[in-house]
Every structure is written in C-alpha cells, then in structure tokens.
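Case 315 in the screening queue. Each case pairs one protein sequence with one candidate compound; here the compound is adenosine-5'-triphosphate. For every case the pipeline is the same: read the inputs, emit a complex structure as tokens, and attach any notable structural observations.

Predict complex for case 315.
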Amino acid sequence: MIIETKNLTKRYRKVKAAKLFHKKYSTFYALKNVSLEIHQGDHVGLVGLNGSGKSTLIKMILGILQPDGGSVKTFDRDPLNNRQKNAVKIGVVFGQRSQLRWDLPAMDTFKLNREIYQVPEDIFTKRVTKLARMLQATEFLTQPVRTLSLGQRMKAEFIAALIHDPELIILDEPTIGLDVLTKNSITEFLQQLTDKTIIFTSHDLDEVAEVCSRILILNNGQLVLDQSSQELAELNVPATVTFTSADKLSADLIKQWPNMMQLKNGSYQIAGIKQENLKEVLSTITARIPVANIEVKSNKLAYLLAHLKQQEVQQ
Ligand SMILES: Nc1ncnc2c1ncn2[C@@H]1O[C@H](COP(=O)(O)OP(=O)(O)OP(=O)(O)O)[C@@H](O)[C@H]1O
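Case 315 output:
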C-alpha cells in the first residue's frame, strides 16, 4: 500500500469574534474523518473547490502537518517521523511554488538534486535526456530559469521532481496558468508514467480525469466522492452557452429560451442545456444570430457538488 488514511482529521481554531482584549474561538475542520487507500500504480485525481482541504491532505501525506485525529501512513509508515526516508520515494511538483534556482539554468538544479539523492552520473544523464525528450524541453534546460516562460518552467519543474525516479508523484495544481498546448503535453507525459503512483490535485475535474483513472472529491474537508473517471465521464452534465452579438435578439428567439439571461457586458447566457440538445441550440444560435463569439461550458464539479448536497438533504 502506498497511502492509507483512517478517519484523518485536521482542526484549526478560528477567531469567531474579537473584542479589544478578548477573542472567542470556534473549531474549524480543514479535514474531517477522511479514510482512503491508494495502491501502487494508482493515478488518483484529488479535486475540490478552494479551501476544500486538498493541500492539507497532501501535507499530511508528506509528513509536513500533524493530524489531530485518525491516522495516515505513507509507504506503510508514519510520514511525520519518516520524512527523510519517504522523501527518497516521493517527487512533488507545486504549480504555485518553484524548486528551481531562479538565476541558474534548470540543469544546475537537476545536478544539485542528483547530488542530494545520490543518483549515479550515467543514470542521471540517461534520465534527464529521456524526460527532456518526453516533455520537449531539451533546448531550454541550459537557459537561466528567470528567462523561461511559465510553460517551459513547469516542464523543468517536472524533470527536477523526477531526477531520483520516485515511486510516488504528487502534483499540486501543476497546470495552473498554462495554455492548452502545454497542458496537453504535460497530460500526455503523465499518461505515460504507468508504473508510478500519481496524486494530481486540481479544481478542474476534466483535466485530472485525462490522467487519473480514479477521482476523489473533497468538499469542506470531507471526502464526498471516490469514483472511477469512466463513471464520471458518463455523467450527463448540463451545459451553459454564452454568446455575444451586436444585434438585438428577435422576440421569438427570446421566447424559445425562457431561461436565457442577458449579462451585464451585453452577452447572453443559456444555462441547463442537456447534452442531447446542445447541438441543436448551437446551430440555432449560429444560424439565426450574427455572433461575435460563443462559448460552451459544463462545470462537472459544481454539478456534482450540488447533486451530492441535494442527496444529503433528502436522506
Ligand atoms: N494554518 C492554518 N490555520 C487556519 N486555517 C487553515 C490553516 N491552513 C489551512 N487552513 C484552512 O483549511 C482549509 C483547507 O485549506 P487547504 O489549503 O487544504 O485547501 P485547498 O483545497 O488546498 O484549497 P486551494 O484549492 O485554494 O489551494 C481552508 O479553509 C484554510 O483556510
């Protein structure tokens, strides 16, 4: 087993009310009774809104935070007292934090990591060459990191995290701010790491589903869903279409979509469109209105959370 948590809980005291010399506190649960198992080779997506407890869970798996209740085991041992031993088997990429030295080429950080993890030189060279080829990163690894684009830097972060060939790869929102092409190339890269255990946190369910076969959803510190990506892909989530047109819409069109809203910026939005009706709605809009732009979105996470809440209320 790579990770096992049982009723894992993290509490904080939050100030409820404050007078000049007197504060009142309430207990706040960043994580509440989370039980899960992650096995060798699992690619697990950890998804949730801001503040749902994703980073707290990751920090406890890494042994950075102490639990207030329940237990966590990483590689069958207490991560808090085995941080060094476990670090050899774990690679971490944070989208919001860098492990690369800003003024030096990424290659220098790789060499430093080679020293820290005592990777033999020939293995190091082969590994970096292979990873750089997979990520199409070869040409910019000798350039100072400060001169790299965000996408190039993130690719270098991945290589730095994998220099010691870790068994477990933890990715904390590694694609934040990246364009579609860079995201795709990172997704393809991760899909090839089939012998590794991956935990991939994000707000974007569809993105993690491309890499992970299993999705865990955290909400308000609780594990509310543990399901295969395939089952989630089969969910029929209603879409929202937003479009902009300089022309006024005809009365019969307005009547056709009673739930259409006119937004502040002059664009229009139709929500709750079933997937089977989407094509028809789009062709009607584009055939009958001169649109400047049109966008289709379906927020699976929001839909799931709303659904789960409804189920909870009914029970
Ligand atoms: N040291 C702390 N003291 C008090 N509250 C904290 C502390 N660390 C985290 N929290 C709270 O715990 C909750 C969970 O935070 P966490 O960072 O785990 O969320 P997250 O899901 O990673 O969010 P995001 O997607 O925004 O990174 C948040 O409400 C946060 O304010």
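Case 315 observations:
- The two ends are 34 Å apart (CA to CA).
- The chain has a mean pLDDT of 93.
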